[in-house]
Design a protein that fits this description.
Blueprint (H helix, E strand, L loop, with lengths): L6 E2 L4 H7 L18 E5 L3 H13 L4 H14 L19 E7 L5 E8 L4 H11 L4 E3 H10 L10 H14 L16 E6 L5 E7 L20 E4 L3 E7 L1 H6 L2 H10 L4 H16 L7 E7 L4 E5 L5 E5 L4 E5 L6
Parallel strand pairs: 1-13, 4-5
Antiparallel strand pairs: 2-6, 2-12, 3-4, 3-7, 6-7, 8-9, 9-10, 10-11, 12-13
Bound molecules: glycine.
The site of glycine (GLY) has 12 residues, from strand 9.
């Protein structure tokens, strides 16, 4: 399917707000144990990531492989300014990356504040599979990556370095404010339900552009940027990490699903909780996507402008998310 053929479904916002996105239209009847494999991911960069992830699911691959290979596409995209190689630096000119991954057995791995490595998501997976730990940060994470034959890269890339120098001239040491829906991307979070009925998720970002050196957001934090419970569902987050961490966002979404909420209702509940905690969210965008064990999906954001990509055997779509504030 060509990108121009993708359907944008924002006009159905009213339907999504209570029921989430119906992936089953076209199916005749669903039995109670029916589930529908699917991949979903944040923002429009999710379209390309989903293609690669779905290629694995369709071939009976494991969700954990799908979520890793999908977001690697985004990490490799030198035109992407919020994830991986082309990411924006912190105030001091360092591109520090955060990522985490979680599988259907609650195994998880994470790296934060890692610099000069192309695929933090794969390093996170190696932490999960090769160490007794969940999270490695900074120089330790980099040493682990190099010891495990991950390639070094030079960041920022020249174009980004130029931009940072300009910013530095104008702003000196003034911390930048987050911009709502900055350039229609931020973190990529990707969730997958495979043909065996197993869920996994991944999440990777270069974080807040011109952040303080050492700042870590929600994306590498299990429970904040990502959470998977194979009995219930999975969720991931994008937006201002500080606000997402305050409510353990993705875990909150999954727990709401455990107590009977649909993925859509669970995302709405988490967004409302952030608004309650933060009080003034004029410049804060936070968004969640979620999936349950049957492959029902949902999303919600504080402000207009967030979208997410869905792919299954029937559909490949970019959906405008519902949002809380008008
Ligand atoms: N959600 C990405 C970050 O705040 O770093």
């Amino acid at each position: 399917m060509k990108r121009r053929d993708l359907i944008r479904l924002g006009m159905l916002t009213g339907v999504f707000s209570t029921h989430g996105f119906d992936l089953f239209s076209g199916d005749k009847k669903k039995s109670s144990d029916h589930f529908s494999p699917v991949v979903i991911s944040t923002w429009n960069h999710g379209l390309d990531a989903n293609k690669v992830a779905w290629d694995q699911i369709k071939m009976n691959g494991d969700a954990i492989d799908a979520v890793e290979s999908g977001v690697k596409i985004t990490e490799s995209d030198i035109n992407n300014r919020s994830v991986g190689i082309g990411g924006m630096p912190d105030m001091e000119g360092h591109v520090t990356l955060d990522a985490c991954i979680m599988d259907h057995n609650s195994n998880c791995g994470s790296v934060a504040f890692i610099e000069g490595i192309a695929h933090p998501i794969s390093v996170a997976r190696a932490v999960m599979e090769k160490t007794p730990h969940v999270m490695l940060v900074g120089e330790g994470a980099k040493k682990f990556a190099l010891d495990n034959d991950f390639k070094k890269i030079k960041t920022p890339i020249p174009e980004v370095k130029k931009q940072w120098k300009e910013w530095k001239k104008q702003n000196r040491d003034k911390l930048s404010k987050p911009k709502v829906n900055s350039e229609n991307h931020d973190t990529i979070g990707l969730l997958a339900l495979d043909k065996k009925g197993n869920l996994s998720g991944s999440c990777t970002t270069s974080g807040w552009a011109y952040k303080m050196h050492g700042r870590v957001g929600d994306s590498p934090i299990i429970g904040a940027g990502l959470f998977v419970d194979n009995e219930v569902g999975a969720a991931c987050a994008t937006g201002v990490g500080e606000s997402i961490i305050k409510i353990a966002g993705s875990h909150t979404v999954v727990e709401s699903m455990r107590h009977g909420f649909t993925p859509q209702e669970a995302c709405e509940e988490a967004v409302r909780r952030i608004i309650k905690v933060e009080k003034n969210v004029k410049n804060i965008q936070c968004c969640f996507i979620a999936i349950d064990k049957k492959g029902n999906v949902g999303s919600h954001a504080i402000h207009k402008g967030f979208n997410y990509a869905i792919k299954n055997s029937l559909k490949e779509v970019l959906v405008d998310s519902t949002y809380e504030l008008t």
